[in-house]
Amino acid sequence: MCDFHPALQFELARCYRIEDWIEPAFRQLMDIPITSLEMSHMRQIGDAGYFWLVQTKAQIDNHRKHFAFDTPAAINDPACNTPATCNYTWSREWDTTISELIHHPDVPMSCIDLLNLLEETEIDDLCEGHRKRTVSWVCGIGHATKEEDLIDAAVTALMSLQTDEPIRAALMSSVVDGAERQVQGTSSLRGQPISKAITSVIHRSHSIELVPR
Ligand SMILES: [Zn+2]
Fold this sequence. Notes:
The chain is an all-alpha fold and 213 residues long. It is 67% helix and 0% strand. The protein has 9 helices and no strands. The longest helix has 31 residues, at 39-69. Zinc ion binds at residues 77, 80, 82-83, 86, 127, 129-130.
């Protein structure tokens, strides 16, 4: 685990093709509000990284809005003796508690965490059979994995840049030595030996806000 900002880790991963750093750096960036990123972080993340970061955050935000807004109907349990009460309670809880948790301004809950919470938490006036059947159905239509699928898609796209980008650059240049200069983006670290860059990183990290752990 790196002890410097994930934007810097992402920059190093891109510059030096450190494949194992792309996903952890991107996932940490996904956990940081976009408003807390500074211009220097955006430069480090680069055009492609910033595109996927903003795109993925927006897609997840959009998914969460639909998830909270489209109240799923409760799935009846044949053994339930109070279906009308259970159906009413499920809808009421979804429209109040669930919406508040998923749209919380400081610590919004992900869909998967929310579904796990519903799976494990007893709710007054909602029988276990109704609750578990309904949560299982909501998971089954893709809500449980949607956010993770979007992050995985972004990581896959970024990983493909790791291998494809230098190849495309080389094809565009008849001079192999000049190909690296055509790699997307610029960086003060680009072109430095990795050992020198890491030394620079350690110095620079003192002036960069570290991610709380
Ligand atoms: Zn019931």
